[in-house]
Design brief:
Elements lengths: L1 H16 L9 H31 L3 H13 L3 H4 L3 H16 L1 H36 L4 H13 L2 H17 L4 H5 L1 H15 L4 H21 L2 H10 L13 H4 L2 H28 L3 H36 L3 H37 L7 H15 L2 H16 L4 H24 L5 H25 L5 H29 L3 H7 L9 H25 L6
Helix pairs in contact: 1-2, 1-15, 1-16, 2-10, 2-15, 3-7, 3-11, 3-14, 3-15, 5-6, 5-8, 5-14, 6-7, 6-8, 7-11, 8-11, 10-11, 14-19, 14-20, 15-16, 15-17, 15-18, 16-17, 16-18, 16-21, 16-23, 17-20, 18-20, 19-20, 21-23
Length: 542
């Protein structure tokens, strides 16, 4: 994996040095490296937070209710703070700054005031509705707890959305580290809340933890303020709150923001529906999915998002210059690197995911039953890891050409399919919370194939060289997987994953040191064979 990571970073460097733009020779790779390092810090602290949460609360229904409420309270996060807002804000800011930097700074301040007013209005209305449901709604105890926790956490939406636009401003200034590392503050406050509430009865504990989550969102936003003030000072803006809300420059965001909201809104609706379906399948389902997806998204966040961020600028420049050859070259190169990382990681999570869950979460209130349920959900999500990463690569290809419609249609179609599959699989297959993960992965594959086919119609990007490289990566991954299973069974006469598939309780090493030793040995065998066989197939030359 070290070799693959080296090739990945080397590839990003090639992307940066191949473009003749206003960017410096190594600006893209430097930006990607800063994003990667900040994200690594936030993911490590996030994992520590989840370990503490699993130890203190396991997958009990109370923590599951909190995680559902957290998703509901932040339903608008990627629409008005990240995702759609960033897609619309960054090009508009750069356009204004090109003509008048002072005007661009005023625009950002206007947007901050406008967004604060809009979010405050939304939060007050939603909290009023939720309070009415609590007072006069005929809710059972489980749903009442979700509504109460959502009510408590609604104010946190303001801070997390303001953080999102601050991060967009810093991205325009090529300041990636602070924005990607700011969630460290969020994770630390959440972790403190876990320790502060662990000794309390479940309902009281979730109430206290909700309040700490509000403080965590405030801390994450506050971490960006010093850098934002520095940037505004360079634009001759002395106060973040200077400006008139709903100015003409802010209103011009409406159209691109609406286009982005369609696709990203579908993803957010998917997340909310997943939590509802998981709750229907199992009262502990949302917690099971939370722990599973945190492991599954680790490679996606570290590698997939980093390469997507590095890819979009050169793609956009090639598209603007109608340079189809260079456009295809950048796209194919990024797809190669995605396959080189995500296909082995998919196999690694399928083979060693249960051992990782047992090692990371399997302590305190996180029982063996929770380990098995979370493993099944992790496997369900893992089969969709590759298409999820590919969507991150293919979507920028459409954005670079100014085509927002196709990715939005693909996302909406995937949402509809995901909803149907959730209902069918939970009702008829009896797979519990893992049904939601499997449905998400199937819809991700459909999204990927849709985007790939549509892009191939505009400009053929799939060629024999690309398919041959993918085949070699698959072959190396399969050989490494086979060697890992054989080595484990030779040494310990069993493979816990087989027991989970057969429906029998798996047996893991009793001591923490033994668990770490087994996982390290299995991982070393997998990586050694993968890298060695990759050299035999000359993958490093692609």
């Amino acid at each position: 994996m070290l070799h693959l990571t080296y090739e990945f970073v080397k590839g990003l460097d090639m992307l940066s040095t191949s473009s003749t733009t206003l960017d410096s020779n190594r600006s893209i790779i430097h930006s990607a490296a800063r994003f990667f390092s900040g994200t690594m810090l936030s993911r490590v602290t996030g994992m520590l937070r989840d370990i503490c949460m699993a130890y203190a609360f396991g997958t009990q229904s109370g923590i599951a209710a909190l995680l559902v409420a957290f998703r509901f309270a932040h339903l608008l996060r990627r629409l008005l703070g990240e995702g759609a807002m960033q897609t619309a804000l960054i090009p508009h800011f750069e356009e204004l700054r090109k003509d008048d930097p002072h005007r661009a700074g005023n625009f950002f301040c206007d947007l901050t005031v406008t967004l604060t007013q809009l979010l405050a209005f939304i939060i007050v209305i939603v909290m009023g509705i939720l309070w009415g449901c609590l007072q006069w709604g005929n809710l059972d105890s489980g749903n009442a707890e979700i509504v109460w926790l959502t009510f408590l956490m609604m104010p946190s939406l303001l801070f997390i959305c303001l953080f999102g636009i601050n991060a967009s401003l810093m991205q325009c200034e090529k300041s990636f580290f602070i924005s990607s590392a700011a969630p460290v503050a969020f994770n630390l406050f959440w972790t403190i809340g876990i320790f502060a509430s662990a000794h309390l009865p479940s309902q009281q504990a979730m109430t206290v933890l909700s309040l700490f989550i509000i403080a965590a969102c405030f801390a994450q936003w506050s971490a960006t303020l010093p850098k934002v003030y520095d940037i505004l000072n360079t634009l001759n803006i002395k106060s973040l709150w200077k400006g008139v809300s709903y100015s003409s420059d802010v209103l011009r965001l409406a159209k691109p923001l609406a286009l982005g909201i369609i696709g990203i809104g579908a993803s957010q609706i998917n997340n909310a529906l997943d939590a509802i379906f998981a709750r229907w399948a199992d009262p502990e389902g949302p917690a099971i999915l939370w722990y599973a997806i945190r492991l599954q998204q680790l490679p996606l966040a570290l590698f997939g998002i980093a390469i997507a961020n590095a890819l979009l600028p050169p793609l956009a420049r090639a598209g603007k210059n109608n340079d189809t050859v260079q456009f295809t070259r950048f796209l194919n190169f990024s797809v190669n690197r995605t396959m080189a990382v995500m296909l082995p990681m998919t196999a690694g999570l399928l083979l060693l995911g249960d051992a990782c869950i047992q090692l990371v979460y399997g302590h305190g209130d996180f029982t063996l039953t929770s380990v098995v349920s979370t493993t099944l959900a992790l496997w369900g999500y893992t089969i969709g890891l590759f298409p999820m990463a590919m969507v991150l690569i293919l979507a920028p290809a459409f954005y670079a050409k100014g085509n927002y419609r196709t990715p939005s249609m693909a996302a909406v179609s995937a949402m509809i399919l995901n909803t149907i599959l959730n209902g069918v699989m939970i009702a008829f297959l009896g797979l519990g919370a893992a049904s939601v993960a499997i449905a998400t992965s199937i819809s991700s594959w459909v999204n990927f194939f849709w985007l790939g086919q549509q892009l191939n119609q505009d400009m053929p990007w799939v060629n024999q060289s690309l398919l041959a490289y993918g085949g070699k990566v698959l072959l190396a991954t399969a050989v490494a997987s086979f060697a890992t299973v054989c080595c484990h069974e030779w040494l310990w006469s069993s493979f816990p994953a087989w027991d989970i598939l057969r429906g029998t309780p798996p047996v893991y090493a009793s001591s923490l040191g033994h668990q770490i030793g087994v996982l390290l040995l299995d991982g070393s065998v997998f990586l050694s064979v993968l890298v060695g066989f990759g050299y035999l197939l000359r993958l490093q030359r692609h």
